[in-house]
Amino acid sequence: MLIKRGFGEKNKKGQVTIFIIVAILIIAAVGIYFLVRNNISQTNVPSEFEGIYNDFVVCLEENLESGVGILESQGGYIYLPDYVSGSEYMPFSSQLDFLGVSVPYWYYVSGNNIEREQVPSVNSMEKDLETFIENRAINCFPENFDSDLEISLGEPNAKIGIKKDEVQMNLKADLVLTRGDSTAEISSHEVIVETELGKLHSNAVKVYEEEQKSMFLENYTLDILNLYAPVDGVEFSCASKVWSVPGIFEDVQEAVDENIAVVKVQGDSNNYFVLDTLSNKIPSDVYVDFLTSSSWPTTFEVEPSEGPVLIAKPVGNEFGLGALGFCYVTYHFVYDYKYPVMVQLRSETTGEIFQFPVAVIIENSNPRESLVGESSALDVPEICENANTEFTIITLDSNSNHVNADISFECFSQTCDIGTAENGVLDEKFPQCVNGYIIAKAEGYKDAEVLTSTVNSGSLTIFMDRVYEMELSVALDNSYYSGEAIITFEDAEGNLNSVLYPEQDTIGLSAGTYEISVSVYKDVSLEFGSVTSEYCTEVPRNILGVFGLTKTECYEIEVPEQLISRALSGGGVGTVTFLENDLRNNNEILINVEKFPEPDSLVQIQENSVLFENKIAEVSLR
C-alpha cells in the first residue's frame, strides 16, 4: 500500500486555509453590508416603493425649507423664548409683533428695567431645526395611502448643519415599507437645501454688534430730536413760547420713521446716512434695511412740562425791568424716547430676508450706555430685590367700587413695580421701608399715592379719583374767543396741567381745587433797534492784605435789534373747586377773561403783564 502522508496532510491544511479565508471574506462582506446597508437601501429603493419614498423625502425637504423660513422671519428662532411683558416705563416686551409675527428682540430692556440680549447662535438655530424636523417627520406620509401598504417609522433623530449657502440635514429614522412579500428598509435620509441663512445670520450679528458698540441708531435719533423738537434755545420775545407735546411727538416720530428708513451700510462714504463702520464688513450682495413704525410700542417723555404742553416764559416784560430794553425767552428740555427698530438683511442672490428687532433708548437726552459682553442691569433698585413683607392693597373709587390698578412702591427715590390689583385687590410682598409711598395708577383715574410703612405686614385701602374729560371754551370780554391762548390748571399739590387752546380743547380733571390761568396772545409787529448801555458793579479787591475794599468795574452791554411778533393781550387768574358731581353732570368748562390794551410798546407789554396777575378769570360749568 502506498501511503503519501506528506501530500495528504498538506492538502488538508490547504483546504482549511481556504475555508478560513472564505469565511473571513463572508464575515467582512456581511459587516460591510450592514455598515453601508443604509446607503445601499436608500439609493436602491425597490421600484414599487420609489413613489412613496420620494414623497417622504420631498416632504422632509419642504419641512426643512419651512423651518429655515421661520428662523429667518423670527430672528433666528423657531421656538420662541419665554415671553416677558413690558411696562409703562419700558414699553418693550421680549417680542415685537411684526405683521402678526412675534419676533424676539435681540436687545431690549424689560418692564422691570433689566437689559436683556437674545442673540441666537448657529448651534441654537440648528437645535431648533432638528426639533422642528423630528416633530414633523411622522406627518410626511399621506393619511390615505394604499390599503395594502404598511409603513413603520422609528424614532427620528435629526442632525442639522447650517453652512454659508446651504443647510444640510441627516435624519436617522428606521423607515420600513411593506407590501405583500416585498419590504424596503431605509434608516438614513439626507436632504440639502440651498439657502443663505448662515450668511445672513453672520452678517446680522455684525450689524447688531456695531449697534451695541457705537449706538448709531441712538445717535441718529438724537440728531432728529435736535432738529424736530425744542431742546435748547434763547429767543427774543416778550411772549411765552409754547409747544404741544403730542405735536412734538408726532413730528419726531414722523421724522424718525422717514430718516431711520434711509440709513444704509453701503454707498457713498460722505453720505450722512451711510454707516462707514459697516460698509467694509457687510458684502455688497447683502442689503440692510432699518424699519420703525409709530404703531409699535413707544414712550416719549419730556421735562419740564405742564401736562401736554411745554412753556418757556419770557424775561424782561415784568414790571420794573423796563431798563433792560428787551425781552427774551430761554429754554432747556430733556427727553426720554424709547422705540423699536426692525433690522432686515436681504440677499440679492436668493431674495431671502433675515430680520431681528432691537430697542432704541434715549434717556435724559443721552443714548443708553453701550452694552458689551454679557447683559447687565440698568440701575436695578437693590431694595426691590428684597421684597419680603406681605401686604394687601385694596383700590376703590369714590363710590367704593373696585378699581383695577397697577401698584408700585417708592422708597428713597427708588421705585419698584409690585403688580396689578385685579378686581381691586392685590396680595403681594413689598420691600421693607419706613415712610415709603404706595402708588396706584389706573386708566381713567388720577394717580394716587399713600405714605405708609411696610416694615410689618398689613393692608391699605387707596381711594382713587375718577378723571373726567372736559371740553374747554374761552370767552374774551364775554364774547366767544377762537384765537390762541394758554390755559393752565394747577391743583392743590402744585401739579400743573396746561393746554394750548384752541389746538387742544379738552382736559382731564378730577374733583378738587384748581388755580386756573388763561393767557391770551395777539400777533404784533414791534421792532426795537439795537441799544448799547453801560453796566457797573462793585467788585472786591485786596490791597496789602486788607479785605473788604471794593472797586467799581463797568461793562458795556449791547442788546441786538429785535422784532417782537406776539404779546400778551388778555387773560386772568381764578380759583375754583370742582366736586365730582359737577364734573359728572357737566361736560364743558367756560372761562371768561378780560381783554388788555393794545400791546404797542415795551412799556404796554410790561403793564399787561401786571394786569394779568390782577384780573379774575371767571369759570363756569355747562
Structural features:
622 residues; alpha+beta; Immunoglobulin-like; nine-stranded mixed sheet; five-stranded antiparallel sheet; 36 strands; 42% strand; elongated
Structure description:
There is one protein chain. By secondary structure, this protein is of the alpha+beta class. The protein folds into 4 domains: 42-81 and 123-193, no CATH class; 198-367, no CATH class; 382-464, Immunoglobulin-like (Sandwich); 469-621, no CATH class. The strands form 10 sheets. Strands 26, 27, 28, 29, 30, 31, 34, 35 and 36 form a 9-stranded mixed β-sheet that branches. Helix 2 packs across helix 3 and helix 5 (216-228) packs across helix 6. The chain is elongated. The termini are far apart. Residues 1-43, 319-324 and 373-381 have low confidence and may be disordered.
Helix content percent band: 10-25%
State the secondary-structure class: alpha+beta
Strand content: 35-45%
Measured between the Cα atoms of the first and last residue, the distance is: 147 Å
The poorly predicted ranges are 1-43, 319-324, 373-381
Give the strand tally. Answer: 36
The backbone outline, from C-alpha atoms, is elongated
Structural domain count: 4
Radius of gyration: 39 Å
Largest sheet: 9 strands, mixed
Number of continuous helical runs: 9
Average pLDDT, rounded to a whole number, is 83
